[in-house]
């Protein structure tokens, strides 16, 4: 049986780009420190992938090395420094809620919103992610990674819908306006930024953490 043709995207190697043969890909990546490459069944897929960040294609977990399990401990490599992190804090449930985004490497605060009354942590995490996406789009950082430690919020963003069960009150009306605005932004904008889970168990608290635990 004939071997199916493959095309190879090389994000990090001696030569970057899309190659038609494994030999070309191997020459670019063999022995190259932290080479990053992947095969695709069509040239169109390989070229599309090359325009995006490698993390969208190589890792299901937020890491820069493949995920492995040693005994009962999950090892997920190291976080990627060229990224931003978001987090939320809420005093009560519901309660006063605020969120922020920081540069993962420098810890520079990029944005901070709140506090807002009668909010929840999940709402804050959701708004923080959408705020980060809009911030990166405005600054033409269209492939920069975003980390969040909230699986729930990441899921809501993927669905383009805040799944909160929180009821509106006289105090949190403005917050629900922000939720509506965030959902509309997700519906009306496309983004390439990978949104990855921050592995708190391995890496410690996310750099955007408010330090109130």
Strands, helices and their partners?
Elements lengths: L6 E6 L4 E3 L2 H8 L6 E5 L2 H8 L4 H4 L9 E3 L2 E3 L7 E10 L2 E9 L5 E11 L1 H18 L6 E4 L2 H9 L13 H16 L6 E3 L2 H4 L10
Parallel strand pairs: 6-9, 9-10
Antiparallel strand pairs: 1-2, 1-3, 4-5, 6-7, 7-8
Radius of gyration: 20 Å
| Beta fraction | 25-35%
Gap between N and C termini, in Å? Answer: 59 Å
Shape: elongated
Order of helical and strand elements: EEHEHHEEEEEHEHHEH
Kindly state the number of beta strands: 10
**Order of strands in the sheet with the most strands?**
8-7-6-9-10
Structural class: alpha+beta
Give start-end ranges of low-pLDDT stretches. Answer: 60-75
Count of DSSP-assigned helices: 7
Biggest beta sheet summary: 5 strands, mixed
Helix content: 25-40%
